[in-house]
Amino acid sequence: MAEHHYDVVVVGGGNAGLCAALAAAESGKRVLVLERAPTHFRGGNSYFTGGLMRVPYTGLNDIKQLIPDLTAHEEASIEIGTYTADDFYEDLLRLSEYQCDADLADCLVNQAFPTLKWMREKGVRFTLQFGRQAFKVGERYRFWGGAILGVVGGGVGLVDQLFDGAQKAGIEVWYGARADHLHTDNDGKVTGVRVKKEGTYHLVKAGSVILAAGGFEANPEMRARYLGKDWDLARVRGTPYNTGDGIRMALEIGAQPYGHWTGCHAVAWDFNAPPYGDRKIGDLFQKHSYPLGIIVNKYGKRFVDEGADFRNYTYAKYGAEILKQPGRIAFQIFDQKVADKLRDEYRIKEATKAETQTIEELAEQLEIDVQGLVKTIEEFNNAVQEGEYNPAILDGKGTKGITPPKSNWALPIDTPPFLGFAVTCGITFTYGGLRINTQAQVLDVDGDPIPGLYACGELVGGLYYHNYPGGSGLTAGAVFGRIAGQAAAQ
Ligand SMILES: Cc1cc2nc3c(=O)[nH]c(=O)nc-3n(C[C@H](O)[C@H](O)[C@H](O)COP(=O)(O)OP(=O)(O)OC[C@H]3O[C@@H](n4cnc5c(N)ncnc54)[C@H](O)[C@@H]3O)c2cc1C
Question: Distance between CA atoms of 472 and 107, rounded to whole angstroms?
Fold first, then answer.
């Protein structure tokens, strides 16, 4: 087996791995990134993202440090409010049902802003998410839901900018290189990694190894084993290469499993989307505008509170609710009063949709039980309460007397043409993973750091349980990636 020597080896070339590699290279170390995918499929799940990044800010001055090229016109046309580190921390606690690791959460919220500033220095450009995270109220765009910032060019832009930075920093990347085994010495220190590249095994020896190989969302066997019944049937939203290798390799040498192993991030995803992500479509198979309408199953019955909270705080858990429905199918129904507010992803030609003048026709075209849907919409419309409708705030304009309720943004569905979109469950990433400390060192089953081993990104457990605040994944990957790279280089 051919032997190679580096100071730091990073397993996985997504956002977390590339941030780790860039940070490690800052101190002049020889850094190698091992990427399982071929070059034309590089970037992992990070490539498929919309590039939304959750970051705390106390006002426009903070945002201008990340987006110095914000124009005066843009400044005058926005209302961004504030989203403090405490707000971010509280969101992580609240959505995890107070189970997330307090130390990791604290590190994430406090390092998020400096880390994004550092990413900017590395060449990543940010922009405000006008189209997806703001509604126009009067003459101004009012941002909502704590996540207002994204990367220019979305996930594609993020990955290209990070790879450009890596090239400038002299970081080597091996594509089509699958890490499959960690080497340790007699003291349990990680000394390298075995890699299969073009059918041949190599031993890459290194002072430190950083695992950034994603979760197990693209592994149907592990999904069934840990997430449970029918999760093997979920559509995968992103890369086919995240099959849990990083987690498995670490567990094999005594790393501690941590976090919510039966939990995952899963969303409403076009019913006819392919089994894995499509690089040309990116994230556009998602359907995230359900707070503007209602969701029913094939019997025409509602099964979630579409207006329980801003979509950033409900979308990641509603995929699992769709998976439980007969045939793993659901339908989002809207009328013309909200049609202009639907997100960009509703306008792609690949969407599985119907547009009709009557509810009966809509049900027929989408193969929903006709009487079931008509009855549900009648009951829903009668249950809508008076109040001022405002999609940019939790407006409290809900329903009364139906189960489940719709707690905000309830408007009668009565203005044709009616729109319906067929969706299924698309899994994004898994919540269970490895235990790290705030230095990104992987801990063993006794709680001690495994010398020479670091981890970051999706394969870290302990941050998300049950649910997830939208835009946190990329920020967490960058924060712990940067920490891992700095620590590994020492
Ligand atoms: C459609 C979609 C939209 C999303 N939108 C957002 C968003 O807007 N904002 C947000 O914060 N999050 C979003 N997410 C979640 C986000 O993608 C993740 O939180 C983040 O990208 C994870 O980064 P990562 O580096 O840990 O993993 P990845 O980016 O998936 O990188 C892991 C890499 O490891 C490689 N790999 C796997 N196994 C091996 C091995 N054995 N050897 C070598 N390499 C290996 C993979 O090929 C992959 O390139 C979205 C996800 C999807 C799928």
Answer: 13
